Amino acid sequence: APKQKMPKEIxxxxxxxxxxxxxxxxxxxxxxxxxxxxxxxxVSDTASGLTIMYMPGEKKKEExxxxxxx
Length: 70
Prior knowledge:
Number of strands: 2
Largest sheet: 2 strands, antiparallel
Strand order of the largest sheet: 1-2
Shape: globular
Strand content: 15-25%
Mean pLDDT: 83
Distance between the termini: 35 Å
Oligomer: single chain
Order of helices and strands: HHEEH
């Protein structure tokens, strides 16, 4: 897959999220992760650090699944 250039807005939010996690404000970190996902980026924390992948269209599918679960 071609490399996607990450917008400055996403980089800023990742930094904000990292700061929140360092301050053990996991609710805020989770909220920021959800904001980032709206832009089509999947964020996950692994033993080796943060992984972020550009996945356009994934968010819509996830919302559709939630709708069906009701």
